[in-house]
Amino acid sequence: MQSTARHPVIAAADGLPLAATVFEPAHGPVHATLLVLPAMATRRSFYRHFAAGGARRGVRVATFDYRGVGDSRPGSLRGFRASLDDWAGLDAVGAHDFARRLAADGPLFVVGHSFGGQVLALADALSDVDGAVLVGAQLGYYGHWPAREQRRLWAIWKGIVPVTTFTWGYAPGWLGLGGVDLPADVARQWARWCASPGYLFDHVAGAKERARSFDRPALVYSFTDDDFAPARAVASYLSAFPRAKLHHARLAPSDVRARRIGHFGYFRPESEARLWAPTFDWILARAAGLDARPVFADAGRSFGDGIRIHADEVMADLEHGRDAA
């Protein structure tokens, strides 16, 4: 099955226009709608292969750019006001409302990549989805990283980010926070969260309660070579969702015959057969009302119920360039 793409402009909850792309099956019915919630400093175009892969399987997929990123960026970020609260409470909510209208009475799912997965704790609107897929979602407190990394991360969050955003008026992509320029308040807020043991839960009113009340099925992927999501950071975040029906697969690249996956490899085309396929199978089964458990095709084993966490791995450094889209 082939896919088609169109590029509407959608409205954030405050009316700000956001760039979006919708991938549809070229032929045949739409069985479910999926909204992609992007990672920090990641353009929607990065998810185009994944989205097209979903559309080929009968899943409509909508992607969008947060304000200040990609095609939702103004000419200059100097003086442009945007925060993580805006990304979650305005942009993601507006995208959710758009996706809900697309889905009409059909099932709606979300896939949250990294920060996108954290939006579940930041936006009430997402509590109505039929299921969630989390990829590399974590609690970003620097203390969850290996000891050898913590001093460098502390310097980034407490020194480099405040100085560069004051000097430049935004966080330049070359700073290493993702390769994409970020609005100043986004970077500053991220830095404050990362320096707090409870991360966003220390700063966002209602976030703990929102996470505790989320009771939808969630398929969770984390990877042993993901420098942005060490095991403790992933486990800490998932523990905030006691009512969610979690299926957690923590995989090594060798589990899917890959040389590397990292923080971004799940969404690259080479992951279609061994990672996307079980994901979309799970979505389609859930859309059909089945209490499905995803199966890792190569090994023929279920990912299982609940949280499966291996011991902490020794992580490589956090240089985003090695994972750049």
Question: Which features would summarize this protein structure in a list?
Answer:
325 residues, alpha/beta, two-stranded antiparallel sheet, Rossmann fold, 9-stranded mixed sheet
**Strand segment count:** 13
Low-confidence stretches: 297-325
Q: Assembly state here?
A: single chain
Known CATH architecture: 3-Layer(aba) Sandwich
H/I helix tally: 8
Form type? globular
Portion of residues within helices: 25-40%
Question: Would you kindly provide a written description of the structure presented here, covering whatever features stand out?
Answer:
The protein has 325 residues and is α/β, with parallel strands linked by helices. It has one domain (3-145, 204-314): 3-Layer(aba) Sandwich (Rossmann fold), CATH 3.40.50.1820. 30% of the residues lie in helices and 19% in strands. The protein contains 8 helices and 13 strands. The chain has helices at residues 48-56, 84-103, 115-118, 147-168, 184-194, 207-213, 231-238, 272-287, and strands spanning 3-6, 9-11, 17-25, 32-37, 59-64, 108-113, 131-135, 170-171, 182-183, 217-223, 245-251, 295-296, 301-302. Strand 2 and strand 3 (17-25) form a beta hairpin. The radius of gyration is 18 Å and the shape is globular. The chain starts with a strand and ends in a 23-residue tail after the last strand.
